[in-house]
Each structure stands twice: as C-alpha cells, then as structure tokens.
Design goal:
Number of strands: 10
Helix content: under 10%
Shape: globular
Strand order of the largest sheet: 4-5-6-7
Oligomer: single chain
Largest sheet: 4 strands, antiparallel
Distance between the termini: 30 Å
Structural class: mainly beta
Number of helices: 0
Order of helices and strands: EEEEEEEEEE
C-alpha cells in the first residue's frame, strides 16, 4: 500500500492480507511495474518525478523529471517500451523511457 505522506510502501501478503514491513520510498503517490517486471515506477507527485526503482529492493535506478505538478497515472503502450502519463495540475500528458538494463 502507498503511504505518500509517510514516505513508505507497505507490502501486503496477497494470501493473508497481512501488511509486511514498510519500505522507505520518498513520495510514493502511485506505483506501477514495467511489463517485464524489471522496474518499479514510483509516481513522485510532489517531487514532479517518475522514479524507476529495483522492484525487490526499491533502490533508485533513475529519476526522471516530468513537466508538471501532480504526476499521477501512467500506462505502457503495446509493443513500445515507454511510459505515457498524466499530471493533475495543469492536466497534461508526457512520456518517458525506463532505464536500460545492462
């Protein structure tokens, strides 16, 4: 579960519904994962950033500024490996590319 005011993510066991140990993640307004599972994508709304993280450790891989406040929702386009998204204020769209794996 996202706790953007407390700056952490809390994993929830899908079988039991029991919350796990919180992980320190700054400004996790929304959380997505790339289709290949190689990156967690944190919508850092107040920071105006998309933050790509290791999906297991949440270590930062790349932080990408977005051109608007309220970075909110994102999606992945079919055969393309980029992230189109929407900001709340002003309502606008943008696109970013996840970091490349070596």
């Amino acid at each position: 579960m996202n706790d953007d005011l407390g700056n952490n993510l809390v994993p929830i066991n899908p079988l039991t519904g029991i919350p796990g140990r919180p992980m320190a993640v700054h400004d996790p307004y929304n959380l997505y994962f790339t289709p290949d599972g190689k990156h967690a994508v944190v919508m850092a709304s107040n920071d105006r950033q998309l933050v790509f993280r290791d999906p297991h450790t949440m270590a930062v891989q790349k932080a990408v500024p977005v051109p608007c406040a309220g970075v909110n929702h994102a999606d992945f386009l079919g055969g393309r490996y980029d992230v189109p998204g929407v900001c709340d204020s002003p309502v606008s769209c943008w696109s970013s590319t996840p970091p490349r794996r070596r």
